[in-house]
Here is the input.
Amino acid sequence: LQAVATGRDLVQAASTGYSAIVDRHGTVVRRSALGRPAIATGNLGRPPYDPDLDTEGRVVVVEVSSFQSVDLEVAPAVVVVTALGSDHLDWHGSLERYHEDKLAVTRAPGEHVTLLADVESLRARRDLVGGTVSWVGADVRGLAGELGLVGAHNDQNAALALAAAATLAGVGVEAVGEAVRAHAARFTPLPGRLTVVATERRDGNDVRYVDDGLATSPLPTLAALEVFAGEPLALIAGGFDRGVDYAGLAGALARRAAPTTVVTTGPAGARIARALEALGAADRVLVAATVAEAVARARETLVDGGVVLLSPAAPSFDRYRDWTERSADFTQVVRSLVG
Here is the structure.
């Protein structure tokens, strides 16, 4: 990063709450007035230090994890932060330290622009943010919908991607938006981000099976709950326990007015179940040992239709190599079950 960032105009780093925005940045930059190719690297894509990676003349979009952020000795031209929640506490030791480390890339030396989602969680930690700060509100032009993305959080993500490309290109956001809109039909959303993998017709009602497996912390799972706020829901949650606070997620689940069941798996699932029990919502909890059992139990609860949602709010390392393997298992189980 330090070698490439010397020119100040070739690198964009994303410290994100939603990995999908990295691909979105790549797409937006490619279709914007920048006129240069873009490549997605880091946690999503190839390692940016890959000796075979050709960065010459390209915009490099890097997803940086909180425990990588502290190691960066120079800031890229643009830093994007979409959200600030609770994650990786087993690594950082405390929520305060996690926030400090997550935002460290914004405080790295070098002239740079820091684009922040205009949300309360980031406003509250403005003291930890460096660079030339610009607050970005949610997009109201409907671009996320044209890209096939659902949920209010994706309106925010789309706005940040547009702002990043516009900053790098030195043009207005509207010009970038129109350029992207012209190519929206070519955009394919990332798998594992609210992807409908199957729809089953049962007794005159539809049951949709949705893979949100990239939701490995509570924040994206909370966003997914908002997408399906008025629908009967069977949430499959849990996995490897990183020690994060599930009180907020449990509260959101307990408050849902629509019929809601939570099928928990793994050590993190056990903690989610206990958090729900503490709120008097134990009747909403079922326990499963495997994804196959979780899908079957979730399906049984939706006699009048609804959504079976894999949005774990936890990593997959208790049973799988990574989130993609867990999502693949979910998809295979669903398709074998519903045909």
User: Anything to note?
Assistant: Residues 6-22 have pLDDT under 50 and may be disordered.
